[in-house]
Amino acid sequence: MATLLTTEQLNETSRAPRTIEVPAPTAWPFILAFGATLLFAGLVTSMSVSVLGASLALAGCVGWFRAVFPHEQEETIAVTPEDIRLTTDRPVVERIPILPDQLRAWLPVHTYPVSAGVKGGIAGSIAMAALACAYGVLKVGSIWYPINLLAAVAYRESLRLGPTQLYSFHPDSFAIAFVLHGVVSIFVGLLYGAMLPMFPRRPIVLGGLIAPVLWSGLLYTILGLLNPLLASHIDWFWFVASQVAFGIVAGLVVVRQARIPTRENVSFVLRAGIEAPGTIAPREGREEHR
Q1: Most confident of 2-6, 140-144, 275-279
Q2: pLDDT band at 268, cuts 50/70/90?
Q3: Are the C-beta atoms of 255 and 200 separated by less than 8 Å?
Q4: pTM above 0.90, yes or no
Q5: SS3 letters across the chain
Q6: Which pairs with CB-CB distance under 8 Å and at least 24 residues apart come from 269-277?
Q7: Which distant-in-sequence residues (6+ apart) come within 8 Å of 179 by Cβ?
Q8: Quick check: 26 and 73 in contact, CB under 8 A?
Q9: Are residues 26 and 67 in contact, defined by beta-carbon separation less than 8 angstroms?
Q10: What is the phi/psi pair of residue 27, to 5°?
Q11: Nearest C-alpha neighbor of 97 from the set 287, 290, 282
């Protein structure tokens, strides 16, 4: 038969604990992160930096593992109770104004279909390729020069071509450049289709001017470190111009496609979702509305 607890026992049971156990502070995660940083920094500096980074990363992993297994290292700290009292002077509950036929809204409410991003990527790739080929014809007198440079991003044999061979047609370089340009353009077009609905004001300024200039500057910095030989062959003025042409054309094609509601904002989900507190009209207001 169950026994009844006294009042003192109930108070003692419901009373907040005086101390709690928390994980003990440790520097091993910092050592692991610093070692991983040196490990990758050695790829562009020296092998000795990578060796030092690998040693620190290994030591960080072992030290962090031993701080958790077989027993987690913890320390006990005192708990300071707080006397929290919630008071209000408002006579009524404030309601959040909402649309009559929409309970909740996830932003963006509408987005572009996947086909819009694919179309934008293909159209932008054509504009970019046309401008790059125009650069090859007007500046160096060969349409194959920018194609061989693009293939050199993933195909080192293109960089080993002599000055005269860069101006001639090579089937392997052309195939690699064609596939690389098409795949990257489609992926960027899909990114445009996902991001442009989040910027309803002047999306072409963002997608056609700001974004291409930003990633061109990033490529200029990274390519100068990873592949200085390839960076020395690129005319960066024409490169930025071709990126801007891609962004403007891809953005125009994407924004002209019909939008569709996002999956979170279809009418069935809105009506079947859980209504948040404060969004339901008061009972008296609903009766008067009827």
Answers
A1: 140-144
A2: very low
A3: no
A4: no
A5: CCCCCCHHHHHHHHCCCCEEEEECCCCHHHHHHHHHHHHHHCCCCCHHHHHHHHHHHHHHHHHHHHCCCCCCCEEEEECCCCCCCCCCCCCCCCCCCCCCCCCCCCCCCEECCHHHHHHHHHHHHHHHHHHHHHHHHHHHCCCHHHHHHHHCCCCHHHCCCCCCHHHCCCHHHHHHHHHHHHHHHHHHHHHHHHHHHHCCCCHHHHHHHHHHHHHHHHHHHHHHHHCHHHHHCCCHHHHHHHHHHHHHHHHHHHHCCCCEECHHHCHHHHHHCCCCCCCCCCHHHHHHHC
A6: 270/102, 270/103, 270/104, 271/103, 273/103, 273/104, 275/103, 275/104, 276/103, 276/104
A7: none
A8: yes
A9: yes
A10: -100, 0
A11: 282
Q: Mind listing the pLDDT tens digit for each residue in 34-89? A: 999 998 888 777 888 889 999 999 999 999 888 888 888 888 888 887 778 878 77
Query: CA angle, corner 163, sides to 160 and 165, nearest 5?
Result: 70
